[in-house]
Amino acid sequence: MTDYGVWTVVTPLVTIVLAVVTRQVILSLLTGAMVGYTVIANFNPFAGVAKALDSYIGVFASAGNTRTILFCFMVGGLIRLIQVTGGTRAVIHALTERAQLVKNPIAVQLLAMVTTMLIFIESSISIMSAGTVSRDLADHYRVSREKLAYVIQSSCVATCSSVMINGWGAAMMAIIGVQVSKGYVEGEPFNILLHAIPYNLMAWLSLLAVLFYVLTGASWGPMAKADQRAAAGQVLREGAFPIAGDHQRDDEPLGKVSYFVLPLLSTILMVPVGLFITGNGDIASGSGSTAVFGR
Question: Whose CA, among 27, 156, 159, 201, lies 20 to 30 Å from 42?
């Protein structure tokens, strides 16, 4: 095994620095991979680039990877379908003008938090759904995109990592099952994971932290600057380019709440069904990537 010494730090360092400077995560990851392969290729940049390109293509050699990538595209299409049919506007209208539940920045952030926690079955759907529902409300009540992203991401990760009937739970039970089969631990994977969830302290602390920042309005460092900028009416930082686009188009119709609920509900319910089918009746043995793709 080759020891690359201090050069092993170069790849993550380049990736992190590029991500901070350019704010382009995908570009930074691809560049970091090229740098890493260049180190492995004895610092030959041409060989490093060639190996990196081969590795990118090799990702699709895995059926699980390919299903996951296609699933991300399909989720994006689903969210866009909900928008163009007026489902998003219908939910916003129902929450603000009918029920009048969302009246201030705190309510917007709590809505984002609750939405992502309720859709716990798959993290991609959870994050995109919560963002779709709360984004324009957050802009209206001058909640920075950075704060909204923090609330949604932290709530999603904490919730999805503490639930067993989703892709994460299936993956963790599969890992535990391997350890059981090798004799490293004893018991049933389901029971082991179930009893381990209360010790998922990072998840519980993350949720408490989100509630603290939402209810108190406290912020510090770059987040404080983002909140000050949003309070002045600029919810996006200068030069920001949202991947999902910016505000809703004015010509999008006002549909029905069911146009938002039904597509998401059918998608969510199909995940445990997919786990059950691919696991031959045992959810713990199901394939997470196949389950989310087969929805």
Answer: 27
